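Sample pair:
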Amino acid sequence: MGGKGVNLKKLHAIATVLFLLLCGRAAAQVEITGTVFDKSQLFAMPGVSVLSNSGIGTSTDSAGHYRVRLPLTDSIFFSYLGRHTAKIAVKRIAVGYPLDMSLDVHIDSLPLVVVRPKAYRYDSLENRDEYRKVFEYAPDYVVGGSGGGVGLNLDMLFGAKKNRQMLSLQRRLIEEEQDKYVDYRFNRTLVKKITGIQRPALETFMRLYRPTYDFIRNCENDYEFYKYIKDCGLRFQQERRLNLPLDHPHPIEN
């Protein structure tokens, strides 16, 4: 009888340990990170919902990245514009590797997301600081007189040559700044990635389809700009296949 009591105690202890181990495994969490792309796998998608069976969730940031901690017993899935992906068991996700996803969404259907290149803005600000006097130059031919009246600024009138030189330099600096902005946005790496056009045809494409500064700035979002490049690339390749003259309608300056 005493032996049976000992065996029962051992079995109870083993069962307790197993139960605790199972509970510990169920409670264990892993960190899952990754990036969500559109169908072409070229463009990261912000604002995508990252969900789980347990109710834990997050959303992708402006660069399409996400980070979430989920239990091993959980499942993860992604949702965008009412469409859900298949669920993926957390325990099947390789530890230490990102879980990147490509959703069945084309850039044409993406909502407005304003994205501006930060690096160029900082360079532009440095340039403006260096030539601040020129950028802010504005000749004032009318000045306030004594007694609250107004009069002509004679220094400005007699210094007309200097005024013209300053305004000419101002226009040139602004044009150079705008050209650098177009070069930054409409670069070979981006165009090659979107269109698949290789050198030397790439050089011809870059010259023919170079957009204006105003066109790029008036694009409501990056996706509209990318679509312009994509559509131009398709037309360019079609004209090359048909041996048609390579021309294009330049973007309208708004």
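The chain has a mean pLDDT of 75.
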